[in-house]
Amino acid sequence: MSEEFEIRNKVAESGLINFDLTDLVPKGERKGIDLKDFLYMEMILKEKDFREKVAAINPEDYKDAYVYIYNSADSIVPLWAYFLITAKLTEATKKIVFGNREDLEVILMHNAIQNYDFDEMRGKRVLVKGCSDKEIPENAYIELVEQLQPLVKSLMFGEACSNVPILKN
Question: Are 136 and 106 in contact (CB under 8 A)?
């Protein structure tokens, strides 16, 4: 006696939407600019020297990159210094921020979440993928819940085989 067994994918049949935040991570090179390299003795901003160094920046080196400007020196830099670098690079770059690489990633994910159309998830059961090989800023998960809470039927975190229920509407 031989019985036929049908292999069924119960996860696919459940109507569960799997959402991976890494899909929202903007693709492109990340480049940092340390203001320390533009300062006299890596400490003092001399306007003439600073302007010359900014003028020497080749915007093509930052073409389509995501740029973060930071200052690793223990020095005070006037705000106009950031204006000059930003004005020099804005047309070539995708985005420029003040801060470190992590600050850049937080802002990029914020923008990606704010601009994503979550309407397909309205009234659905959504599982946010818990494991990833890419670094996702923690704040992105908070912003994601803010976006999904009013839309979804239920929200879970983890994997289909092992998840944590977050909310039910």
Answer: no
Whether residue 164 has pLDDT greater than 90: no
CA distance 98 to 66: 11
Residue 103, classed as helix, strand or coil, is helix
Taking the model in full, what pTM does it have?
Answer: 0.85
What are the tokens at 61? 């080196």
The mean pLDDT of 58-72, rounded to a whole number, is 98
Residue carrying structure tokens 């390299």: 37
Please report which confidence band the pLDDT of residue 6 belongs to, taking 50, 70 and 90 as the band edges. confident
Per the DSSP assignment, residues forming a β-bridge with 33 are 69
The amino acid present at 23, given as its one-letter code, is D
Three-state secondary-structure class, residue 104: helix
